[in-house]
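Re: your question from the hallway

Yes, I did run it. Sequences:
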Amino acid sequence: MEKEIIIGVLQMSDRASLDTNAYSSLSGDAILEVLTSYIKSPYRTIFNIIPDEYDLILKTFHTLAVEEKCCLILTTGGTGPAKRDVTVEATEAFCQKILPGFGELMRMESLKYVPTAILSRQTAGIYENTLLVNLPGKPAAISQCLQAVFPAIPYCIDLIEGPFILANEQNIKAFRPKSG
Amino acid sequence: MEKEIIIGVLQMSDRASLDTNAYSSLSGDAILEVLTSYIKSPYRTIFNIIPDEYDLILKTFHTLAVEEKCCLILTTGGTGPAKRDVTVEATEAFCQKILPGFGELMRMESLKYVPTAILSRQTAGIYENTLLVNLPGKPAAISQCLQAVFPAIPYCIDLIEGPFILANEQNIKAFRPKSG
Amino acid sequence: MEKEIIIGVLQMSDRASLDTNAYSSLSGDAILEVLTSYIKSPYRTIFNIIPDEYDLILKTFHTLAVEEKCCLILTTGGTGPAKRDVTVEATEAFCQKILPGFGELMRMESLKYVPTAILSRQTAGIYENTLLVNLPGKPAAISQCLQAVFPAIPYCIDLIEGPFILANEQNIKAFRPKSG
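Structure:
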């Protein structure tokens, strides 16, 4: 039996987590929309909005990775230089391996649009069979960054023994090298 | 009342700190000159030349950030691979958050001129309301690097609740995104 | 008397270390071939193939740097996101200074060929008088990465007081800034 593809989407937002208005989930919704466009395989998402609190973020990472068995967790928000921005701290504490190439490429990509891209500390990493990637907070930046890094995500999940993800080749090309 | 803009400039140099000749402050002077050209708001600088000693660098960071209330500290020197190069070690020990995008962009920029740019370990980070940025040791490289990263500095200082810095738009464009 | 140039080449490979077939040393051989083409000075290499085991890698780094007095150690393999990939962990534990510019440039270079380049965690660092550089596992990627970073290697070894390495200018240009 094939492994189910479960993807966690986690929006960090002090304001949004207190707010019940529809507009407050804009960042997370932007991620969900890109996933719909990029992934052809059947998959299920778990979407949470939580405040920018270190302990709570860490606990939610654990729930999504260990209990919910997400092969991929995508975060949005909390990667800047302000005191309340602690998503990166939680990511580094949670992951067993850090993959600096994700942050480098996303900043390089965002630099094409705004010089303040260098203020983002976003990174990515591995915990057991889960890949965790920090995305920026703004919807436009989210889709620019996902377009840059998504081609490497299905193969990364192969390497950590997660489910096989088939990309929607009309919208994005996933790359898998010929020999492992 | 508006907050005063105080900028610390710290030159690490074993030779220069023992030397009273004017030429020995070349690197620090290069930073001061770029600041004059880039910043329109009134500001005050504090310029120190100290030897490449870890404890002394750390102590000077503390003085500049906490006692002198600098919103920005710019260092020059001590970012290479040699044993005496300890500016980066002190920066990482002092800062509460590291901003890897500064070092990445400055190395990428310097690579346009010299392939040895990859030997620089320069980085940047935040301590409370102070942004600390390591610059290279050579005057030409200093101005190349500041040109690359300065556009993000005023907004970064906004985010850490420092004073509002107005850039001299004729010489450099500072970028502030529309919504926080 | 001039210092002897000794270069350690270390191939991490679970399969190759159990295997006596000639093809299994492909990655290490690719490194040796590039060195032959790039280095004009007389030098000696020490080539080991070992399994992907953290303690063994760390011990071999120590032997190559301290006992064998290699000024340069080049590794291949073990830089990916999989659980068995521990070369980067051992490198970070062994080195006294990390040089992030090497990994950044190698990933940027590899990105020209494959989007999965961001999955490599390869880095470089210094232990006393030894420069240690992680290279990818695939022969083609090895030569792309060495071509990008080699121009900075002889000067780096000067800075850590290693032997003077003369490059073969027909095949690669080593760069040494005019003043130290």
